[in-house]
Amino acid sequence: MHRLINSISLHFKKVSSFSVKDKPLPFPQVAMPVHVFKMLGVETLFVTNAAGGLNSSYTIGDIMIVKDHISMPGLTTDNPLTGFTNERFGEQLPALPELYDSGLRELAWSVVGELGLQKMVREGTLVQVGGPSFDTVSVFNMLRRLGADCVGMSSAPEVTVARHCGIRVFGLSLVTDMAPMESDLPPTNHQEILQTAEVRARDVQKLVCEMIKRLPNNNTSST
Ligand SMILES: O=P(O)(O)O[C@H]1O[C@H](CO)[C@@H](O)[C@H]1O
Ligand code: HPA
């Protein structure tokens, strides 16, 4: 139970504003579940997502340990902390220097080695777009030039809220498809994304479960 509360591995399928494609929720509602975790005493948040590969050295099925993210909506007015003037959960104008905990990333690499998954694991930058449509070839090329290795529609808002209130974070992106960089390539296909996710779910689960077993009990965030 202690481990369960201290280390929740979550996929925000139901609660993330970016996963509820029919009717996006306003940003404070992304923050709410994370704040509930905080009040429950959660110290570590694991986020996972399906993402399109932008880095040409990646292949479908790779698992990317998220080192940092770029939130396209967050760069404008859709920052998930917008409107939080109550400092109960964190300061009003926070710096968020290390969103993805370096100690947890190191732990991940040692577990990856033990599980023999090195050949399919990468470490890189996730860019979050608003969705729900997939992006154009020109946008994919732009996102790659910005320095992103993978593109997805979730995780960044939850991670920002978690770091703001002092929860340390670990993130994984599963490369479910390669973003088309030329107009004559087939467009992103949701069925392909679901299929890759199904095929690779077991390895992602193994990695997450092994990491959770080895987590330190106290919140010694590397930042
Ligand atoms: O981020 P998760 O919830 O894994 O979902 C990912 O998969 C969907 C695309 O198929 C997009 O919503 C993308 O963000
Ligand atoms: O290309 C993509 N864009 C956004 N989200 C995604 N999730 C899987 N692939 C993609």
UniProtKB/TrEMBL annotation:
Nucleoside phosphorylase domain location: 30-213
InterPro entries: Nucleoside_phosphorylase_d, Nucleoside_phosphorylase_sf, Purine_phosphorylase
PANTHER family: METHYLTHIOADENOSINE/PURINE NUCLEOSIDE PHOSPHORYLASE (PTHR11904), PURINE NUCLEOSIDE PHOSPHORYLASE-RELATED (PTHR11904:SF9)
GO biological process: nucleoside metabolic process
Gene: LOC109481947
Stated family: Belongs to the PNP/MTAP phosphorylase family.
Annotated Gene3D superfamilies: Nucleoside phosphorylase domain
Protein origin, superkingdom: Eukaryota
CC terms in the record's Gene Ontology section: cytoplasm
Molecular function GO labels: purine-nucleoside phosphorylase activity
Name used for this protein in its record: purine-nucleoside phosphorylase
Enzyme Commission code(s) on record: 2.4.2.1
Catalytically driven reaction(s): 2'-deoxyguanosine + phosphate = 2-deoxy-alpha-D-ribose 1-phosphate + guanine; inosine + phosphate = alpha-D-ribose 1-phosphate + hypoxanthine; 2'-deoxyinosine + phosphate = 2-deoxy-alpha-D-ribose 1-phosphate + hypoxanthine; guanosine + phosphate = alpha-D-ribose 1-phosphate + guanine
Species, as recorded: Branchiostoma belcheri (Amphioxus)
Pathway the protein takes part in: Purine metabolism; purine nucleoside salvage
Keyword terms, alphabetized: Glycosyltransferase, Transferase
